[in-house]
Amino acid sequence: MSDVLDSLDAALLRLDPALAARVWEPLAGGRTNRVWRVGAFTVKRFDAAAASPLFPNDALAEARALELFAPLGLAPRLRAAGADWLIYEHAEGAVWSGDPAPVAMMLHRLHRASVPQGSFRNAPNGSAAVLADAMRIYALGAIPPDPGVAPVKAVPIHADAVSGNVLATVGGPILIDWQCPAMGDPVEDLCTFLSPAMMWLYSGRVPAADYAEAFLRAYPDAAVVARARVMVPLYRYRIAAHCAWKAARGDAEYAEALKLEL
Q1: Full-model pTM
Q2: CB of 157 closer than 8 Å to CB of 123
């Protein structure tokens, strides 16, 4: 741990020698890794043991995502990276709340982005693959029926687009915590953002009755929205499996979240 902090200190001082006198201010919100603000930068230290079957925790993947998506206004700008740490420009903003329409449009911009082949892992794609992945994570009862939705052409997805990972900035919403990006079905990001369990875990609230409709109406691709309406039960089942996996390891908050998702 001390070697990692020494590497981080050295990287920060290369970026700004004046940071030698700055306090590392812990940032709240993340449920997986340790994050600090140091001057104009955010410092992120990854905990390899915090990965789960649904959400990988890959520092190199996050660094690659920031390099690709910061120029598009979708992510903070990366300034330095190590095997298990990142330094990026601190994004001033609060966790997104209120009107979900700008988030839908921001996600659409991500899903239309072009990235080099092999940039990210491949996420389960199509209804059969999503159901199989849910059962791999945790064996829950009452398996939803497979609607027979075929895989689609994979696009870049955040794959952890929960409300707590969307920041409201002066320039509009951006995404943080890119530790599990993938190539997959854009429906995954839509369904994750609408998850009652994930919203409650990150904000202490659940979506209002009209929240999902307002969000889906704002997403500019009607075919993706139509597919999302069919796939919501499957992605919610997979998030419920994730909550059950966490609860089985003693996390009481996820036991409560599981009830919301089911």
Answers
A1: 0.95
A2: yes
